[in-house]
Every structure is written in C-alpha cells, then in structure tokens.
Backbone:
C-alpha cells in the first residue's frame, strides 16, 4: 500500500463522520425543537428534507468543481461550510433561522461525496480499494449515530439542544483544521487527480477566462455539462450502477424506516424493544460493511452484489410471510441491514473502476443523486403500502425491490466484463 493511502482513508473517513453528523443533526432533537419553536414534527421534517434537497442539487456542480479543480479543496470547503451551518443551527432563535441553517449545512454536506470518492480512488491501490471504501462507509455510519449520542447526553447533563449542536460544530471546526493540514501534505497527483487528467484539455477556468460576456460563460457551462452527459450516455455501466444505487437506496429506506413497525405491529414485539432491535440492526450492518470490503478485495466486487441482494430477497421475503417465530423474526431483522451493507464497498469499487479519472467526482455525485432519490421515494411508497395492505405487504415490496437490484446486478456484471 502506498504511504499516502492510510492518510487519505483516515482523512475522508473523519470527514465522513462530520458530514453525516450534520446530515442527521436535527433528528434526535425533534421534541426539543418542537417545544422551543412551537412547530410540528412535520415542519421539522421539512428542515431535514431541506438539507437533503440542497445536498441533491449540489452534487453534480460540486462534482464538476472537484474533478476540474481540486478534490482536496472541495473536501475542506465542504467541512468549513457545513460547520458554519451547524454553528448557525446552534444559535438559531426561530424556526426560520433553523431553515436558513439547514440550507447552509446542505451546501456544505453536498461536497463530501464528490471529494471523498475521487481521493480514495486516486490513493488506494487495487488490492485494498474495497477495504478503503468499507472504512469510509463505516465512518459514515458512526457519523449518523453521533447526534443521537450527543443530544441526549447534553440534555442529561443539564444542557439543551443548543449546547449539543454547538459541541458538534466545535468538533467539525477542529476537524476542518486537521483536514487543511492533511490536504497540504498530500501530493497534487492525489488532491488534483481529476484536474491533472484533464491536462490535455483546456481547463474550465481557462475556458471561462477566454470568453467576455455572461451569456457566453453560461453557454460554455451548458456545453461542458452536455458533453459530460453525452459521455455518461455512452457508458452503460455508469447508468446501470446509478440505477442500482437508486434501487438499493429504496430498499435501505424501507428497511430502516419500517423494521421496528414490522416487529411491533406484525410480530407483537413491544414497541421500545422493536426500536432497540432496529438500532442494533444498523450496528450489525456497519460491522458487516467492513467485512464486505475485505471480501470484495479477495473475490471481486460483483459476487458480493449477488450474495448481498440474494440474501436480502430471502430475508425480507421470509419476514413478509408472517410465519416466523418471534425469536427467528428478530434474528432475521438483525441481518437485514447487513445484506445491504455487505455489498456497499463492491458498488463503490465498481463505480470507481468504471470511471475515467477526470470524471470520478461527477460519477460518484451521480450515484449520490440516485441514493437521495431512493430516500425521497421509498419512505412514502412503503408507508402507503402499509396503510393500504399492511406491514407484511410492505416487506414483500422490499423483497421485490431487492429482486430488481439482483437483476440489475446481473446486468452490471455483464457490462463490467
């Protein structure tokens, strides 16, 4: 392994913790925020949705900046802007100011995937690539859990949500300084890998300087974007992987949102215990993710897709039957997230290998749009299925979604060959 690879993996993993903490910052404080600002849980859900909407809109533009200018600069900028947004949330005195903070946080969070994945791609050797992506994913899982630990701890110690948000912002600020130092130690061949791959072409910055009017600059940007989409249209593997990330995200959100509901209303497990099982399920998935990276490096990424989605079809299908004993249902539920996380490093590795060096940031931004779209579609769709046909029917839908992912995996394997 190159001497820069551990530094890069550590750098992006720490950044993943921080950015994912910002992503779910509001969720554990919903009750407190609702009381302080006299708003409904639905209105606070809108704040979380606003963060995600800004993240989605920022993906491709920041992917372009990452590839055309600097992955390292986008990573540091992402941390800095997200930290400002988190600090503004800690200082918010009204719901409207909380929404403004959500927009700023979203702008910061939007840059982390377009920067992280190209940095790993440039630094990690082939033999360790999937393990590098699995370490990155594991760190992201820790980041999602961080606000759920810090907010209750702050309340238990007699402080409020403002102190909790401020503590997370302070952690982000310290890490931003660490990231600046780390990025400066890395060679341009890693931090500007996408830009150096474009040396044979005129850079976007130089091209923009060569034109005089705002209209000409706008047309140039449109032309460059159109050229990228023409490249994607001619790359079936990237399109298939985007579809796979979308379908995968839909299955993930179905599992995360409704497993506790299934165990409670479907199998008669007490509601609090069902929630604990759902939380434990995520921990199991995060640990299995590390093993998935190791296996993908050993046997190749495509077999991991078949193992992961095949297992999910079986497990989700079994839960949907309502025929399992309660103990068996709990055991199968603990493994649900693991089936998805097992294949995550493989999906990242395949996206990396399918990308031109100059397009890694944009391609992973495209995958992130697929993830966000799946998260937008799946919760209401599965929730509607529960209202109409019951929770077991919804998990039959999860199994069917996993079946679609399995079919897409076959196409991905063929295209990869």
Residues:
């Amino acid at each position: 392994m190159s001497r820069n690879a551990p530094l890069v993996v550590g750098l992006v993993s720490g950044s993943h913790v921080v950015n994912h903490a910002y992503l779910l910052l509001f969720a554990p404080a919903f009750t407190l925020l609702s009381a302080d600002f006299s708003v409904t849980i639905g209105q606070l859900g809108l704040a979380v949705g606003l963060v995600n909407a800004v993240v989605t809109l920022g993906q491709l533009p920041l992917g372009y900046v990452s590839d055309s200018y600097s992955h390292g600069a986008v990573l540091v900028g992402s941390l800095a802007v997200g930290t400002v947004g988190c600090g503004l949330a800690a200082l918010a005195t009204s719901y409207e100011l909380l929404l403004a903070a959500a927009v700023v946080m979203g702008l910061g969070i939007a840059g982390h995937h377009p920067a992280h994945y190209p940095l790993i791609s440039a630094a990690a050797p082939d033999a360790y690539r999937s393990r590098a992506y699995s370490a990155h994913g594991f760190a992201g899982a820790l980041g999602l859990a961080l606000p759920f630990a810090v907010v209750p701890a702050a309340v238990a110690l007699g402080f409020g949500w403002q102190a909790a948000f401020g503590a997370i912002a302070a952690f982000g600020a310290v890490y931003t300084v660490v990231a600046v130092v780390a990025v400066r130690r890395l060679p341009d061949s890693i931090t500007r890998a996408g830009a150096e791959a474009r040396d044979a072409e005129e850079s976007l910055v130089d091209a923009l300087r060569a034109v005089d009017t705002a209209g000409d600059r706008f047309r140039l940007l449109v032309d460059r974007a159109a050229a990228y989409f023409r490249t994607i249209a001619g790359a079936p593997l990237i399109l298939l992987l985007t579809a796979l990330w979308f379908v995968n995200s839909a299955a993930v959100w179905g599992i995360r949102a409704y497993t506790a509901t299934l165990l409670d209303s479907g199998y008669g497990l007490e509601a609090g215990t069902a929630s604990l099982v759902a939380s434990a399920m995520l921990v199991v998935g995060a640990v299995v993710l590390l093993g998935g990276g190791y296996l993908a490096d050993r046997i190749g990424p495509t077999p991991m897709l078949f193992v992961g989605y095949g297992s999910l079809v079986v497990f989700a299908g079994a839960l949907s039957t309502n025929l399992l004993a309660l103990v068996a249902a709990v055991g199968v539920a603990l493994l649900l997230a693991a089936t998805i996380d097992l294949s995550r490093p493989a999906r990242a590795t395949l996206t990396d290998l399918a990308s031109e060096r100059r397009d890694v940031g944009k391609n992973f931004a495209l995958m992130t749009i697929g993830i966000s779209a799946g998260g937008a579609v799946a919760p209401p769709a599965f929730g509607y299925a529960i209202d109409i046909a019951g929770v077991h029917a919804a998990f039959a839908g999860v199994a069917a979604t996993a079946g679609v992912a399995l079919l897409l995996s076959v196409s991905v394997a063929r295209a990869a060959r």
